[in-house]
C-alpha cells in the first residue's frame, strides 16, 4: 500500500483499512525490537507505525488506522501537519542545535508565543525544557527556591512524570514507586476531586503534619490523565486557589496532557475561571518534537537568578520552530473551537453508547479529552479491566487506536488530534461501537 515516501497510500476520506495485525513485516520487527530495546518500555498493541498524516497512521504492512490517541495527546494538529513540517525543515536547514546558554532568536520567539497565550494578566516568564517531567522537576526547584519553603503537595490519582522529583509527586499507581524508594522527601498526597476533600488540608496536613507557612506549592492536574481522566470540578479548583492565596502557597497547574486547546479551551483550568502561579506544559506544544515549558508570572522567575536552573537541549531550535508553527496553526485554523465542537459530538456519542450498554460505568471529560470507564457492575463500580483491555485490541484490529488509563486500567481514553473532523469522530464512534458489540458479555 505504501506508494511514495512521505505520503499515505490512497484510501477513503476516513481510512481504516486493516488486513492483519500484526502483519508479517510487523511480526519480524517485533522480534527485532525485543532483542535490543529496554523491556521497561510499555507497548499498547502490535502496531508498527511508519507514517502519519492528519488523524491517520500507516503501519509497516500498509494497514491504515484512525489514530485517537495522537501519540498520547502529542500530535495536536495531526500527524505531519504541513505548516509544522515546513517550519521544522526550514529550521533544520539553518541550525539544528545551539545550547540555550546562548542567545537564540527562535528560543525567544517561542517564549514570546507562550507568554502571549499565558493566562497571567501581568507580564510572564518562560523556561523551556525537553519534556513534561523536566518541566515538573523545574517547577519543584522554582517553588522551593522562590518561597524558601520545603514541602510540596500533590493529589492521590495524580501523574506528573517518571523522573525522581516528578514520580515522587505521582500517585496514580503504586508500580511507579515500586523498587525506587525512598522518594523525594517533603511530599504529601491529598484526596482529589471534591470541595469536601479540601478539609484535609486544615484538619490533617496543617493541623497535624506541617504548618501552612512551610508548604511551597500544591500541584494539580485540572483533569487527572493517567489516573483515569478524572476532571476536577470547577468549585474544587476555585477553592484550591483560595486556599493557596490564604496561605501564601504557589499553585502549580500540570497542563502537560490537558493544555494547548485539548479541552476546548487553551488551558483546562480556564473552565474553572482560575489562574495558577505556575503552569507546566509539554505534550501538544510542538506536535511531536520534544519540549516542555514552565510558564510563570514575571517576578516569580526573577527570584531564580542567573544559573539557578538550566539545560543543554531544552528549547532546541527545531522544537521551538515547530512550537511557534503549532501556536499559529491553532489560532489561524480555529482549533480551540474545533476541539470544543468535536468533543461535544464525541461525548454525545459515547453517552448514547453508555445508555445502551451497562458495561460502561461512566463517560467523562472536556473537549477532546474523554474517558470511558468500564465496570462489572454499575452499583458496585468494580473495575472491568478485562473488557477494557480486550476492547483496545479489538478496536486496533478494526482500525481504531485508543489507549487505556486509570489505576485499574479500566478506562479507555479518547485523545484525537484537535483538528479532527466530524466525519472522523463519527467513524471512530462506529468502530468503537462495533468493537464493543463484538465482545462477549463474559469478557467482564
Explain how this protein is built.
The protein is α/β, with parallel strands linked by helices and 444 residues long. It has two domains: 24-81 and 335-443, Aspartate Aminotransferase, domain 1 (Alpha-Beta Complex), CATH 3.90.1150.10; 83-332, 3-Layer(aba) Sandwich (Aspartate Aminotransferase, domain 2), CATH 3.40.640. It is built from 13 helices and 17 strands. It has helices spanning 24-36, 70-73, 82-94, 105-117, 132-147, 164-169, 199-209, 234-247, 298-302, 317-332, 335-356, 385-398, 422-438; strands spanning 49-53, 56-59, 64-67, 124-129, 151-155, 187-190, 215-220, 223-224, 230-231, 250-254, 278-281, 292-297, 360-366, 369-374, 400-401, 403-405, 411-414. Helix 11 runs parallel beside helix 13 and helix 12 (385-398) packs across helix 13 (422-438). It is globular.
| Estimated radius of gyration | 22 Å
Share in helix: 25-40%
- In total, the number of strands is 17
> What count of structural domains?
2
**Could you say which overall geometry the principal axes of the C-alpha atoms support?**
globular
- From the N-terminal CA to the C-terminal CA, the straight-line distance is 37 Å
DSSP helix count? Answer: 13
Strand order of the largest sheet: 4-12-11-10-7-5-6
Structural class: alpha/beta
Indicate the CATH class of the largest domain. Answer: Alpha Beta
SSE order: HEEEHHHEHEHEHEEEHEEEHHHEEHEEEH
Q: CATH homologous superfamily of the largest domain, by name?
A: Type I PLP-dependent aspartate aminotransferase-like (Major domain)
Could you report the average pLDDT, rounded to the nearest whole number?
A: 93
> Uncertain regions: pLDDT < 50 for 5+ in a row?
1-7
